[in-house]
Amino acid sequence: MAEFITGMKRTNYCTDLGVSDIGKQVSVNGWVQKTRNLGSLIFVDLRDRSGIVQLVFDSDTHKDLFDAAADLHQEYVIAATGTVRARSAEAVNDRMATGAIEIAVSAMRVLNAAQTPPFHIDDKANVSDALRLRYRYLDLRRPSMSRYLMMRHRIVKEAHDYYDRNGFIEVETPSLCKSTPEGARDYLVPSRVHPGKFYALPQSPQLFKQLLMCAGFDRYMQIAKCYRDEDLRADRQPEFTQIDLEMSFVDADDVMTINEGFIKQLFKNVLGVDVKTPFRRMPYAEAMARFGSDKPDIRFGLELTDISEFAENCSFKVFSDAVASGGAVRLICAPAGHYSRKEIDGLSEFIKTHGGSGMAWIAVSDEGVRSSLGKVLTENEIAEIVRLAGAGSGDLICIVCGKSSGVYTALGGLRCYLGEKLGLIPKDEFAFLWVVDFPQFEYSEEEGRFVAMHHPFTMPRTEDIPKLESGDLANVKADAYDIVLNGYELGGGSIRIHDGNLQKLMFNALGFTEEDASERFGFLLEAFRYGTPPHGGMAYGLDRLVMLMTGSDNIRDVIAFPKVQNASDLMTGAPDFVDDKQLAELSIARTALEKEGAPAQND
Questions:
Q1: pLDDT band at 593 (very low <50, low <70, confident <90, very high)
Q2: What span, in angstroms and rounded, lies between the C-alpha atoms of 549 and 535?
């Protein structure tokens, strides 16, 4: 290839050039975005990762080059040399970074021809997600995708620079680990050398970074790859990246303060946004009660109102029974508008898809009220709900009852849906907060036991350790903290347990036998015997952070080669079958079902 570009190697990226370069001879390399043949002039928009510059081929000065340019097509790869000149006044394009200049080409080579791509390489092209991901290498040529990945690079660089400047040491931790299932499913990797045994891909570097604190490294960070075998959604992938860190001899305030500094620097240097610190702190119980979410979007109101005290003695048995059984009745009051019966029924269906059994409603107007409760509550009772909701003319009161967790989920989801639908959410605002005072445990109906809300290594509040010892798990709070941005959990962490006896007590509370704990985490408990400092840390979801900073609404946009909803890769075809020889080396046999779907094996 070298002989093809001799003398025409890039001197500038396309958008490096401007009016200050007029008169200079330059060489640019890239892809043909489009061509326009005007008879005696051919204009070619040349694109590289920085953007587009216009090339001009003139038949009067370079007939051979003009003829060659006439054969150029979209996505041809070319090298061009020429002189930067000003565009005529009427040809200036203010929408382009290089709209005031063009390059009069004096030499050009086609470095590679291209077939017509399956879609136009343009942000305006209407292309299905499946086609974009099937040809991801073409999708990544689009300007928006290029910007996303370049911003991701800048964010990672800021993380390295900030934490290095604050004394953090970057250490890589293993990708082949021991499986310690507790929470999401592990991705397992069979061992050829140890037949029947498996490694696990790490769900996080949690145990290793705690061991690094045991090792005395004091401050650790890593841009870490993590893997979880779980159902996907718009902001989740089976493999994802964390900005991971840990600190010794600190409390929660120390961890939060240093990370507020990181966010402040990051948003200033990358987006030019001044983030005010310190961030607001909100207890978990308050977040749930007011917003129905432990990651509340505080850019708008529409908060939940608890009317359980009223409902306990009202004439509607569904409400009173919900309270009597330990549940709750809560509402949100949607602001003034015209809500048709069809729209209200749609909101009720929305509630059902978010875990609620249904929705009662009261529509307030100057003429009076309409309500689904008209036959089960008195006029005075409906009027009291209107008063408790603070509703005025045009408002719609949405009421949900049941278990508190289900009510929070349903109304929290409805709140965000209505906030978006009604235009209540300011789009140019970044609203950070810390959610603190999480419960240490949550009860899993599926497993019939208490499980760790964060992970088994989270330190309980010191004052709640006696409750842990007595088995009052529902009332133990964790020394944990999540950083939230605009309704997304940006990251989270905690102070860790550093005492072996307390860690054993935690395992016992989670239902681990001594043998189970030793089998899964014996190496950590062993390390705790040799002088472990108090420590804590956190991790950011890098992909989610980039998504929010770029303004994308899908995490796949900011990952170079993502998976789709069923965790497959449309471009490479992964996951896929492997041949029987590879399976035999790993001491793995196919099941009958797998054999039906597997391709025929060559002899």
A1: low
A2: 30
Distance CA 465, CA 503 (A): 11
Q: Is residue 162 located within the same domain as residue 232?
A: yes
Q: Are residues 153 and 269 in the same domain?
A: yes
Where do runs of H (alpha helix) occur along 454-562?
465-470, 500-509, 514-527, 542-550
Among 151-155, 185-189, 264-268, where is mean pLDDT lowest?
185-189
Sequence-ordered list of residues with C-beta below 8 angstroms from that of 59, at least 6 positions apart, any chain = 40, 41, 66
Residue 387, CA distances (Å) to 390, 399, 411, 456, 550 in order: 5, 14, 19, 45, 42
Q: CA 419, CA 414: separation in Å to the nearest integer?
A: 8
Residue 1 has pLDDT above 60, yes or no: no
Element (H, E) at 27: strand 25-37
Domain boundary among 396, 421, 446: 421
Tokens, residue 219: 């401050």
Domain check: are 440 and 412 in the same one? no
- Report the pLDDT value the prediction gives residue 234, as an integer from 0 to 100: 60
Per-residue pLDDT reduced to its tens digit, 205-257 = 999 999 999 999 999 999 999 999 987 766 689 999 999 999 999 999 999 99
CA atoms of 545 and 542, how far apart (whole Å) = 5
- Please indicate, yes or no, whether residues 344 and 231 belong to a single structural domain of this protein: no
Distances (CA, A) of 57 to 46, 62, 353: 13, 7, 59
How far CA 49 is from CA of 25, 260, 451, in Å, comes to: 21, 32, 47
Is 63 contained in some domain?
yes
Per-residue pLDDT, 595: 65
Cα(231)–Cα(407) distance, rounded to whole angstroms? 23
Q: Which of 65-69, 182-186, 390-394 has the lowest mean pLDDT?
A: 182-186
Q: How far is CA 28 from the centre of its chain?
A: 36
Confidence of residue 591 (pLDDT cuts 50, 70, 90): confident
- What mean pLDDT value characterizes the chain? 93
- Which phi and psi angles does 465 have, rounded to 5°? -60, -40
538 plus 449 within the same structural domain: yes
Which pair of tokens denotes residue 182?
């507790």
Of 363, 493, 487, 480, the C-alpha closest to 432 is: 487
Give yes or no for residue 331 having a pLDDT over 70.
Answer: yes
